[in-house]
Write a structure and sequence with these properties.
about 210 residues; alpha/beta; 2 domains; 5 strands; about 35% helix
């Protein structure tokens, strides 16, 4: 099977772990902690992190523990677009934007099942392309996102909720921020980082 590139090598754990965190767990340096984590040799009982955060770190350090092995698609494989709640979000919870490719949905479904934070998972109609290919074929654009927002009644009611773009779509952030009256944040490139990303962010906003 020709396995799809899920961008595991883009994960950067350093921004989520401080030297103080590692010293409190008995390690001399952050690098020592991360090396043990990546090697799968870190005992959760030795670590001072809460279990949820530890597992999020582990998944980001060892993406193969959470990402399914999916075959690379030669042609677009669309699935229904639409808005999906994750962990009982409300109208102020963030909105993760992604593509309506079967491959993308398969990967994200496996990852999002491990998250604890409440947010919305919005599958944008990209004609069945994955995010990377949708950017190439221009089916994942700021204009298409704005059009989709206008069609989704729940998203219109959540005008203050931040949008979270896939890391590969970072180039759209400025244009979207200028077009929309809501915060626009760039998330990670690799899906395995999402549980850690959402767990670390101060997502609660006020009207």
């Amino acid at each position: 099977m020709l396995r799809a590139d899920l961008y595991e090598k883009t994960v950067r754990l350093e921004s989520y772990v401080s030297s103080d965190d590692c010293c409190s767990c008995g390690f001399q340096t952050r690098e020592e902690f991360l090396d043990r984590l990546r090697a799968g040799k870190l005992d959760p009982g030795r670590c001072g992190f809460a279990r949820g955060r530890f597992l999020s770190l582990l998944y980001a350090a060892r993406p193969e523990e959470i990402l399914p092995q999916v075959e690379i698609l030669q042609h677009p494989a669309p699935v229904p677009a639409g808005l999906n709640p994750v962990n009982a979000p409300d109208r102020l919870s963030p909105v993760l934007v992604s593509a309506n490719s079967r491959l993308t949905v398969e990967v994200l479904s496996a990852v999002l099942a491990t998250t604890l934070s409440p947010f919305w998972y919005w599958i944008l109609d990209t004609d069945g392309h994955t995010v990377d290919m949708a950017l190439v074929y221009r089916t994942f654009t700021a204009a298409r996102i704005v059009q989709g927002l206008r069609r989704e009644e729940a998203l219109r009611r959540s005008a203050h909720a931040p949008l979270v773009l896939p890391g590969l779509a970072a180039s759209l952030q400025e244009e979207l921020a200028q077009s929309l009256n809501r915060p626009v944040t760039v998330g990670p490139v690799c899906a395995a980082e999402l549980p850690l990303f959402f767990g670390e962010q101060a997502w609660r906003v006020s009207c």
